[in-house]
Amino acid sequence: MRVRVERGIYGRATKDGATRYEVAYLDTAGRQRWRTVAKLHEARKLRADLVSKVGRGEVIPSTTATFAELAEEWYAAKAARVRARTADYYRQALDHVLLPRFGRLRIAAIDADAVSRLTRDLEREGLHAIDPERPVRPLGCSSVVNYLKPLQGVCALAVRRRLIPASPFSVLTDDDRPMRAEREKPHEWSEDDVEALLAASSRLAGQRESKYDYTPLLRLVATLGLRKGEALGLRWEDFDREAGVLHVRRQWGPQGVYGPTKTEAGVRRIALPAGLRDDLIALRLSSDFSLDEHPLFVSSIRCSCRFRGRRSGIATCRGVALSLPVIWRGCRRR
To answer: What is the tens place of the pLDDT at every residue in 135-161?
Structure first.
């Protein structure tokens, strides 16, 4: 039981008969906080120091707020403002990495060294560093960065609430940050490369075991430079036959549902070359799914062609037409 000793200072008897002194003060956010010391003179000195700091507007870190508490608040606010897929990534980063590592720690205890150690652990061992039952599988730069994003967001929230004076990310050196691997120079596609790819796709489509002809899809992407999700999200209502125009209004996501384009600028109107316009007319006439609400590129299960992660169906043509890795973004004309 607390007993008031003097203004802002209270005493509490311990089990061994000693007295501990608790100092009450208001932080810079106006919340009441407590600090505990062993001696009365220490309590008086501490209270004077805290009151002085608050009067000068200095930030006094909370001694009780944990990462887990603040992380859930941050996620609840963030999930309402981002795409469902992005929110899922944040949730996985929290559940698989950040909460197991930092959940019980006070937010003020997470410093630049803690962030740097987590970065090195993920680079060296992957999720095995968090859960020993997982296999050792080092993570690349982009994966580590994605796992750190919620941590950076929670630290920014802590700074805004004046729970910490500064984010540990603000003092990280280049050596503390995830190591970036050198990117391979993207392949510059020539006209001959594109024609060889399309020819290989046509040959594969003619084989008995072939389930789909990717040639129209590849030709569209090679000509217009659409993103994979944008191409698979096209419906016949987006094709204006008379005007020779294609409207990009949505994308087909890996979850198998339509969604908005990656950015607002992704919604656009594209004038079609005459040859591509004729190809789309022929594709619609030959398709069993040609209603306005049907997708342009339909698989055997009557939905948009299967979304195959970073590498699409064009990977089927690897080694047939080209010895180079076939990557979707590489199909864009440069």
So the answer is: 999 999 999 999 999 999 999 999 988
- Cα–Cα nearest to 269, from 328, 224, 300, 310: 224
| Residue 100 pLDDT level (bands cut at 50, 70, 90) | very high
Token representation of residue 132: 């020993």
CB distance 284 to 239 below 8 Å? yes
Dihedrals phi, psi of 299, to nearest 5 degrees:
-90, 180
Tokens of 226: 């659409």
The rounded radius of gyration (Å) of the Cα atoms in the chain is: 29
Give the residues across from 34 on adjacent strands.
24
Q: What is residue 311's DSSP assignment?
A: S
The answer to whether the CB of 209 falls within 8 A of the CB of 316 is no
Region 67-171: CATH code: 1.10.150
Return the domain boundaries, the chain: 2-55, 67-171, 191-331
